[in-house]
Specification:
The chain is an alpha/beta fold. The chain is built from eight helices and nine strands. Strands 1, 2, 3, 4, 5, 6, 7, 8 and 9 form a nine-stranded mixed β-sheet that branches. It is globular and about 55 Å long. The protein starts with 6 loop residues before the first strand and ends with a helix.
Length: 296
């Protein structure tokens, strides 16, 4: 087992004080501790009281602006250590999570970002928990891929990789115009830069972001719209990899809508995602066209 180096954990948060407190406490209850936790707080209401860590420096960085990508960029800039770990404010980590995640990073070749398992809480009975993983075996991804394999809410990297790839795109992600796919965009750019994504299934955390009813439909729309914008950002007629991915994704959703029995809730969700996917792509192109016209 390799010695754990000093680690900075970055946790963006906005208006979820109770969940944030539970997230930080789960990190402090772990078998291995980070050197610091940087909470990037964009809350419009009261700020959460943070648990105290005897050997962990906990700092709060308050931002008046919104956007998950902006918060991640600010948190990484404020972190003081070379190994940076990112999680969200609505998760609970397993006691050995940090050790497993960082050990995988230390054992990987230079230029690797490690992502771990995001699971639904064992006690979840109602609603749907988004952004979870289904893989159970370690796997490494490099080069062009047919899908997205980086989970921004459970990842570790060295600062030099972030410096090489560049910041998260602040036009993507919750709190922005296109409210998702910021980690898909960054992961794609990471692979295009010649780096790798390593999946470590033993680095487990539980996502407590359950959605139900209209909130679930709103999430489907946001996921589709952000993904459509991500596709449009990287789409090119001279390099059709992303164009093919967009077409496959849209066709898959359309087939599911047509195949599922009329009135089925899943059919409605697939339709909402598909509409968001098209809307996001068109919205990105319109914004790009306006910027190009303005520069003329």
């Amino acid at each position: 087992m390799l010695a754990l180096p000093p680690v900075s954990i970055v946790i963006p948060t906005r208006d979820r004080p109770e969940l944030l407190g539970q997230t930080v406490q789960s990190v402090l209850d772990g078998d291995s501790l980070p050197a610091e936790i940087v909470v990037v707080d964009q809350s419009s209401g009261p700020r959460a009281a943070l648990p105290a860590g005897e050997s962990v420096e906990i700092r709060r960085l308050e931002l008046s602006s919104r956007g998950l990508s902006r918060a991640r960029n600010a948190g990484i800039a404020a972190a003081t250590h070379d190994v940076i770990v990112m999680i969200d404010d609505d998760v609970r980590v397993q006691p050995d999570w940090l050790r497993r995640l960082v050990d995988a990073l230390l054992a990987a070749p230079a230029g690797t970002v490690v992502t771990g398992t995001v699971a639904a809480p064992p006690t979840t009975t109602d609603g749907f928990v988004p952004s979870t993983t289904s893989r159970t075996e370690p796997e490494t991804f490099f080069g062009r891929q047919p899908g997205d394999f980086l989970f921004g809410g459970n990842m570790a990297m060295r600062r030099e990789v972030f410096d090489d790839v560049g910041p998260f795109d602040e036009r993507l992600g919750p709190g922005s115009t296109f409210a998702s796919a910021e980690d898909n965009d960054w992961g794609y750019r990471l692979l295009e830069a010649g780096c790798r994504i390593a999946f470590e299934p033993a680095a487990v955390l539980y996502h407590h972001g359950t959605r139900q009813g209209r909130a679930l439909f709103a999430l489907d729309w946001a996921y589709g719209r952000g993904q459509g914008a991500f596709y449009a950002k990287h789409m090119s007629l001279s390099d059709r990899h992303i164009l093919r991915r967009f077409c496959r994704d849209a066709a898959k959703r359309a087939r599911r809508v047509a195949r599922i029995v009329r009135g089925n809730r899943r059919r409605l969700r697939e339709g909402i995602y598909l509409a968001g996917l098209v809307s996001g792509a068109l919205g990105w192109w319109r914004r790009s066209a306006r910027r190009a016209f303005t520069r003329l």
